[in-house]
Amino acid sequence: MLDVLKKSLIECPVVKKGDYFYFVHPISDGVPLVEPELLNSIMDYIVDNFDLSNVDKIVGVEAMGIPLATALSLKTGIPFVVIRKRSYGLDGEHQVHQQTGYGHSELYINNISKDDNILLIDDVVSTGGTLISVISALDKIGVNIDNIILPIEKDDGRKIVEEATNYKINTLVKIKMVDGKVTIVED
């Protein structure tokens, strides 16, 4: 069922910025075109392979967690909320400092409360900076993190986050960049 995702990763464009090779993929970047078949295959895999019966809310991280949270919400009927890069100043808003391998910024959590059962979804885990910050903030709020799912794992991103947070991180496909190309890593 993940063949569509694997094929799209192997075929995606790769650009070089400085000494770094960056893969450009519909799930992680929104370009090239996000085909419904790709998104549906990922959502079907999640629905078929994860127990979502306890999940009250799907939580996606802006920007690329938004289409994933939306698609999963439509597939399951579970409402979603987005951790945003902008403050709205609403009651109960929580600020999160995000530090990634590419920079740092602030994120804002709204409409998530103590004891909510959530599924956290985002596009890719690479350095782990975003996920570690978000998980820490969700722990402070007191939510129950039922599942953490990311379609793409780059290098040792999953391991980094698991060691830092003591949460199991579920990734669907692991990749490495080899000679400027995306390579699928089979576990």
Description:
By secondary structure, the chain is α/β, with parallel strands linked by helices. It has a single domain (3-185), classed as Rossmann fold, CATH 3.40.50. The protein has helices at 3-11, 26-29, 36-49, 65-76, 129-141, 157-165; strands spanning 14-17, 20-23, 57-61, 80-83, 94-99, 104-109, 117-121, 124-125, 144-154, 170-178, 181-185. The strands form three sheets. Strands 3, 4, 7, 8, 9, 10 and 11 form a seven-stranded mixed beta sheet that branches. A hairpin with a 2-residue loop joins β10 (170-178) and β11. α3 crosses α4 (65-76). It is globular, with a radius of gyration of 16 Å. The model has no long low-confidence stretch (mean pLDDT 94).
Q: How is the biggest beta sheet arranged?
A: 7 strands, mixed
Q: Which architecture per CATH? A: 3-Layer(aba) Sandwich
CATH topology: Rossmann fold
Number of domains: 1
Q: What is the level 1 CATH name?
A: Alpha Beta
Measured between the Cα atoms of the first and last residue, the distance is 16 Å
User: Which overall shape is indicated by the principal axes computed on the Cα atoms?
Assistant: globular
What is the percent of helical residues?
Answer: 25-40%
Number of helices: 6
Please tally the β strands and state the result: 11
Low-confidence stretches: none
Mean pLDDT: 94
The topology string of helices and strands comes to HEEHHEHEEEEEHEHEE
Class per helix and strand makeup:
alpha/beta
Q: What Rg do the Cα atoms give?
A: 16 Å
User: How much strand?
Assistant: 25-35%
